[in-house]
Amino acid sequence: MATEVKVPTLGESITEATLGQWLKQPGDAVKADEPIASLETDKVAVDVPSPVDGVMGELAVAEGDTVQVGAVIALVEEGASAATAATPAVEDRTAVGQAEAAARAEHAPADGAQEDEEPVTLSPAVRRAVLEHHLDPSKIRGTGKDGRLTKDDVLAAAARTPAAPATPAAPAAAPRQPAVGAPAPAPHRGDRREERVRMTRLRQTIASRLKDAQNTAAMLTTYNDVDMTAVMDARNRYKDLFEKKHGVRLGFMSFFAKAAVLALRDVPSVNASIDGDEIVYRDYADISVAVSAPQGLVVPVVRDADSLSFADIEKTIADFGRRARDGTLKLDEMRGGTFTISNGGVFGSLLSSPIINPPQSAVLGLHRIEERPVVRDGQIVARPMMYLALSYDHRLIDGREAVTFLVRIKEAIEDPTRLLIDL
């Protein structure tokens, strides 16, 4: 009996998605709740699980197709086995497909009997990494859940694998001599290739939202810098005790999140938004934190950051980072948000002008820390300095308020005691 696989409910106001990748092909054995396809929504990639044990049957849509919530995308032959399935297995002709087939063969028993363990499947991010580095996933030890490969596993294996020697090029034919007086031909630079890749739904949404923000908001950016000496000293002094007690590392983001909470209380317009001809003010702080994921930048929300401790904030952000890399963030975790913090410093950015995330009215950009000469008590000294950037909607936030907000952030970071006594 064939069981229909339907597009699951994707969250409020989301009615469609893009079929990003089939993780199983017709003829592959599947287990109930095992991911068989990956859907790309406006915000995250969502796995579609098999509803029953059986064998993959007909695929109703192709990769890249747009599908509606509730639509049938495939059939699963319930109770069938891979050896007796009516639908023959479809061989994947790509390098990644062949690697996955090799991985399944590697894990299959010698007598051809079906193993108790799940067949090897690769997430979209892992597939891409395997293809880019030309690796065989069956030769890589997985450290993820149930022994699955993670992107970090693939990158670590790639680092251990010596680069293949370049294949000597065939001798080129002798070039023709240009006619007298003709310009010399441009030097030959070897093969030049182009590749066209369809934009993911997430990338299309990011592009659309950022452009809408520029077209709608009266966006302006103001800058300041901050001396990180006090925060770095506090972190170095307590990081071991903090990690031992709370089980998470003490980073800089919790300091900036707490500083933002204080600044948002002093300058409430930065935490507000425009709704038609009304301004919505909030007495809570849901801080969106920009996190890098394989498919693009995602912005999960630290709810009620104003009532969380340093440890709670660090645990929440660390969890978001792990699940963003694994592609397991939930849609609800990226909805809302009243203010955003984006840390480009982790990638080496010295200075940038971030774009606000509508309907929010402001975003704080952090950058890399580097020692620069500053004057302290009449003496030129080296200090670990960071540039801060606040982009804001000038329709709602005046320049005075934006500058005041950044000054509050600067004061709290340069004197972290303010964070403890709520000053």
Helix percentage: 25-40%
> Based on the structure, what is the oligomeric state of the protein chains?
single chain
As a percent range, the share of strand residues is: 15-25%
Low-confidence stretches: 82-96, 105-119
- Kindly name the structural category: alpha+beta
Query: Any idea what the radius of gyration is?
Result: 27 Å
**DSSP summary, beta strand count:** 19
Number of helices: 9
Indicate the overall shape.
globular
- N to C succession of SSEs: EEEEEEEEHHHHEHHEEEEEEHEEEEHH
CATH architecture name of the largest domain: 2-Layer Sandwich
Can you say what the CATH homologous superfamily of the largest domain is? Answer: Chloramphenicol acetyltransferase-like domain
What is the number of independent domains?
A: 2
Instruction: Return the CATH topology of the largest domain.
Output: Chloramphenicol Acetyltransferase
How far apart, in Å, are the first and last alpha carbons?
67 Å
Q: Note the main sheet.
A: 7 strands, mixed
How confident overall, as mean pLDDT? 80
Can you identify the CATH class of the largest domain? Alpha Beta
What does this structure look like?
This protein folds into 2 domains: 2-160, OB fold (Dihydrolipoamide Acetyltransferase, E2P) (Beta Barrel); 219-421, Chloramphenicol acetyltransferase-like domain (Chloramphenicol Acetyltransferase). It is globular, with a radius of gyration of 27 Å. The model is unreliable at 82-96 and 105-119 (pLDDT under 50). Helix 2 runs parallel beside helix 3 (151-160), helix 6 crosses helix 7 and helix 6 (253-266) packs across helix 8. The chain is 28% helix and 23% strand. It has 423 residues and is an alpha+beta fold.
